[in-house]
């Protein structure tokens, strides 16, 4: 792909949806919650993100802080809100920034729990 074309693809930010599986993000998120996500958005510490782990698993985790990977490239330390459940950077290490695929913007289902995801207040 030409450099210009590549920049154009990366410059476009798409919206999408993610479904929460498991209990690793309780109490903030519960299994079955549907999330509105922004692909290509830059996360900030504290944001909930959709990421790809080294084994290929796609997960929802909290971006805690930027850290360098073993190769020195930028990465994120990602943690579960429920440390007794699931796998996160404590087990997998720093996740390369390119493997943070999207930032969670809202929970959209179930409707009675609709609202902002992450941040200061629980969703």
Structure summary, number of beta strands? 8
Largest beta sheet, briefly?
8 strands, antiparallel
Classify the beta-strand content into a percent band.
Answer: 35-45%
Work out the helix count: 2
* Model regions low in confidence, pLDDT < 50 over at least 5 residues: 1-10, 119-123
Q: SSE order in H/E notation?
A: HEEEEEHEEE
Please estimate the helix content: 10-25%
Mean pLDDT comes to 86
Decide which structural class fits the backbone: mainly beta
Large-scale geometry: globular
Straight-line N-to-C gap? 40 Å
The whole-angstrom Rg is 15 Å
How would you portray this structure in words?
The structure is a single chain. With 123 residues, the protein is mainly β. It is 11% helix and 38% strand. The protein is built from 2 helices and 8 strands. Strands 1, 2, 3, 4, 5, 6, 7 and 8 form an 8-stranded antiparallel β-sheet that branches. A hairpin with a 5-residue loop joins strand 4 (58-68) and strand 5. The protein is globular, with a radius of gyration of 15 Å. The termini are far apart. Mean pLDDT is 86; it is low at 1-10 and 119-123.
Attribute tags:
globular; 123 residues; disordered C terminus; mainly beta; eight-stranded antiparallel β-sheet; 2 helices
Compact summary:
It is built from 2 helices and 8 strands. It is mainly beta and 123 residues long. Strands 1, 2, 3, 4, 5, 6, 7 and 8 form an 8-stranded antiparallel sheet that branches.
């Amino acid at each position: 792909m030409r450099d210009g074309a590549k920049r154009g693809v990366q410059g476009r930010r798409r919206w999408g949806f993610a479904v929460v599986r498991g209990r690793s993000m309780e109490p903030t998120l519960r299994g079955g919650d549907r999330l509105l996500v922004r692909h290509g958005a830059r996360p900030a510490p504290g944001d909930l993100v959709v990421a790809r782990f080294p084994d290929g698993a796609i997960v929802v985790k909290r971006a805690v802080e930027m850290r360098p990977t073993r190769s020195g490239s930028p990465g994120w330390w990602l943690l579960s809100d429920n440390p007794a459940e699931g796998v996160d950077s404590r087990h997998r290490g720093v996740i390369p920034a390119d493997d943070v695929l999207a930032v969670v913007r809202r929970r959209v289902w179930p409707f009675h729990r609709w609202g902002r995801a992450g941040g200061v207040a629980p969703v």
